[in-house]
Amino acid sequence: MSRRSLVSLVALALAASACGGSDDESADTTTAPATTEPTDVTDTTEATDTTVPATTTAPETTTAPETTTAPETTAAPETTAPATTVAEQPFTPVGEGEYEVGVQTITLDDDPERPLTVDVWFPLDAATDVSTLAPVQYTMIPGVYYESPVAFTATPDALSADGPFPLVVYSHGSGGLRYIHSAYTEALASHGYVVAAPDHTGNTAIERIAGGGADPAVISFNRPNDVRRVIDAMTDPADPSAGPAAAGVDAEQVVVTGHSFGGFTTIAMATGFSNELGEFPVDERVDAIIPLAPAVSSNAFSDEALATIDVPMMVVVGSDDITTPVDPNVTRLWDNATLSSPSYRVELVAGEHQSFTDLCAYQDEVPNLPDIPEIVIDTIETMGAEGCSDDDMDPARVAELLDTYVLAFLDEVLADGPSVLEATGTPPDDVVFDAR
Description:
436 residues, eleven-stranded mixed sheet, globular
């Protein structure tokens, strides 16, 4: 693939090389086997080693999420879902979005001690001549970037006049980056959403490379507060940083989505979260949540906390995920969040943890580049084993299914559209689907 530049691939690969094992934030000893790896907050695409010390572990509902690798006997379920009435029509994948996509990077400095770098994707006005715009370069540090094949660097004055548009906030995994799944955020924007994704300061790949990063308890408390700050800015046309884009946002339609530790962040917006640093209350502005391969431990969320989720939810996971296995993570969420309606559980057969990032694109490109140290190639190959192997779901198919189901869900809950099943048809053989 041509979208990745050499420098970004090397930098992101080095970030992955710092990865510490499982994506745990705090181990749930009631589910983890004795041989579980150290409890850290590592997303195997986005490296961070932030083991939660026992002394910082708060009561069961107040710690950061677990992503404990389950034993084989509790691994991802077989491809048999609970009985669900399905539409009697063929599965219909979503088409391309009608909008070209603009991207702007802003800085939220409402907290001078902890500014947030945020990428904002938005639908471009039809009158915009994209041939005059430069492809967006997602920049890690000066000179380290990759270039999008479909999105363009633009300012919000080019935002489509068709709005206001719903706001979707994306939360990256531990040790990740705001644009780690740009194929997903770009797709949402092309279908008429303004998407904002912060770098979670203190928990990014860049800080990991530099040997930094915040304490796990601090990270866990900061994450939902980061999302709150993004919503504040993106729904306030008077905000000095986000105002021009916020003018095109429908403040009454807000959705949060995120991967892995970002899945924890997503859920926390609907349940609230607290630890020794303070309490984060439920953000009542959030109309729906979409956790992707989420980290859901009983240390982070009690069953009672999950039972308070009363907004629509779609949880998407790979059936073969071994970093945040379906059981216990998605199983606990689905079994307890019974007030959520409509609520959907989508399992991608042979999907894995890295199926919800752009890692496979890096793996495709690196071996073809000159002068790449063997350790970099080896690292990406190792990380890519969980999502980019021959027996894993093809990345293009993952994108097709994810975009189809998420966009149908958003249309249903925000625009009074048909149910997900009515919109998409009978689930294909490579999807395990449940609805309530």
